């Protein structure tokens, strides 16, 4: 990835609006998506887990797995890439190391999840969710 990928992503985010960000998970999917003029690409943790390990996104994938895939993709991509960093793969020190490794590998952006907040919201929701709930954002109280 060229060195200005972060600057390009920042300019697009500052401009506002929606960005088209298709998910990629390996070299083939990234090579197909790269010349298609999308705003940004998204490296999916689930996609990498499924394609690399043949396992679901349930804690099997490591930061090292993601950094290896990220490095190989950023060597040729011209489109800025945002990468899934799960919850940082551990505590504060591990999250800091993950962010640094993703930056070094060439990620233009990183997505970190707060599973504590997500899980507390999910547990309080009825299952299956009623149709109107599916179209509304979920707040901290789960409503």
Index terms:
8% strand, four-stranded parallel beta sheet, 4 strands, globular, 143 residues, 7 helices, TIM Barrel, alpha/beta, 2 domains
| Beta content | 5-15%
CATH topology of the largest domain: TIM Barrel
> What is the CATH class of the largest domain?
Alpha Beta
What is the H/E order?
HEHEHHEHEHH
CATH superfamily of the largest domain: Phosphoenolpyruvate-binding domains
Task: Summarize it.
By secondary structure, this protein is α/β, with parallel strands linked by helices. It has seven helices and four strands, in the order H-E-H-E-H-H-E-H-E-H-H.
What does this structure look like?
- It is a single chain.
- This protein is of the alpha/beta class and 143 residues long.
- The protein has 2 domains: 108 residues, TIM Barrel (Alpha-Beta Barrel), CATH 3.20.20; 29 residues, no CATH class.
- It is built from 7 helices and 4 strands; from the N terminus they run αβαβααβαβαα.
- Strands 1-2-3-4 form a 4-stranded parallel sheet.
- Helix 4 runs parallel beside helix 5.
């Amino acid at each position: 990835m060229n060195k200005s990928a972060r600057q390009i992503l920042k300019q697009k985010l500052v401009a506002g609006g929606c960005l088209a960000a298709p998910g990629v998970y390996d070299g083939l999917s990234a090579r197909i998506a790269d010349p298609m003029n999308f705003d940004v690409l998204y490296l999916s943790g689930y996609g990498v887990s499924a394609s690399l390990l043949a396992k679901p996104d349930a804690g099997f994938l490591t930061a090292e797995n993601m950094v290896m895939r990220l490095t190989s993709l950023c060597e040729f991509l011209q489109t800025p890439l945002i990468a899934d960093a799960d919850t940082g793969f551990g505590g504060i020190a591990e999250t800091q190391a993950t962010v640094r490794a993703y930056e070094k590998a060439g990620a233009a952006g990183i997505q970190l999840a707060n599973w504590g907040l997500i899980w507390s919201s999910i547990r309080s929701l009825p299952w299956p969710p009623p149709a109107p709930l599916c179209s509304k954002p979920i707040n901290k109280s789960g409503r």
